């Protein structure tokens, strides 16, 4: 006759009455709405209730839905606008020109030369001028390109 195996595993040694509770439904959704303004009643309202709620919102009777338009905030008063304008005028008088303006003035004085090696490729500037390559330009381009094979070949380490 065959005997069942001995229970030497961990589950047999643990007391089932001292098990820790299972972590279930303890996440962010189990805590309920994040703010008091959130209303989850739309999840379990009937079609008639929804229609009545929407009609009430249109008439301005009930509270507006959270996804509706935000309330209009009052514009600044004349006193606040005058104070803001006064501050801006004072700042313009006391401060010198901005760093951006200074930089533009210093760069404007220098003559900007168009060196293609110092800028990104621009089709209009680089290709637009001449659609024809002379033999000397072709030879010069081939000489420049001759060294590219060494750049993309495998390295020699020893």
UniProtKB/TrEMBL annotation:
DUF3752 domain location: 4-153
Lineage: superkingdom: Eukaryota
Pfam family of the protein (one): DUF3752
Biased composition range(s): Basic and acidic residues: 1-18, 36-56, 77-127
Region (Disordered): 1-158
Protein name (Swiss-Prot/TrEMBL): DUF3752 domain-containing protein
Species name: Pseudocercospora fuligena
């Amino acid at each position: 006759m065959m005997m069942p195996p001995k229970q030497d595993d961990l589950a047999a040694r643990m007391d089932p009455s001292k098990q820790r509770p299972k972590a279930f439904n303890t996440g962010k959704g189990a805590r309920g709405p994040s703010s008091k303004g959130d209303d989850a009643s739309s999840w379990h309202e009937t079609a008639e209730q929804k229609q009545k709620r929407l009609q009430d919102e249109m008439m301005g009777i009930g509270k507006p839905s959270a996804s509706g338009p935000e309330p209009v905030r009052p514009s600044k008063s004349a006193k606040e606008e005058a104070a803001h304008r006064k501050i801006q005028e004072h700042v313009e008088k006391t401060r010198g020109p901005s760093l951006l303006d200074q930089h533009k003035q210093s760069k404007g004085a220098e003559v900007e030369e168009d060196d293609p090696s110092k800028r990104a490729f621009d089709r209009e500037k680089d290709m637009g001028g001449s659609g024809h390559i002379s033999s000397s330009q072709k030879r010069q381009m081939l000489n420049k390109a001759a060294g590219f094979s060494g750049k993309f070949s495998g390295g020699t380490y020893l």
